[in-house]
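FAQ: What does the model actually see?

It sees only this:
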Amino acid sequence: MRVIIESPYAGDVEKNLNYLRAAMRDCVTRNESPYTSHGLLTQPGVLNDNDPEERAQGIALGFEWRDVAEKTVVYTDLGWSSGMRAGVEDAKRKGRPVELRRLGRPWS
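And it is asked to produce this:
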């Protein structure tokens, strides 16, 4: 199953990327194929999340992938970001299921 992962990115980026990797691993153990635009497009040399224009471009590109996802999975151990909320609203508008998850175990 193709899933979009929603998790925090901005703020403590290193911590949030460690969490994202654990969330991806969780999806893989469930036999899901995860996509994370914030984990892919923000790599060095791709897009700069601190540049508002590039950030907007990354968000728009990430939303393109949502049309082929079968579910949106929201990892909430670290709370909610505005980007996560936007992703959930998009899923609801398009009728895509949304599942809330917590890793609930050490992940860093």
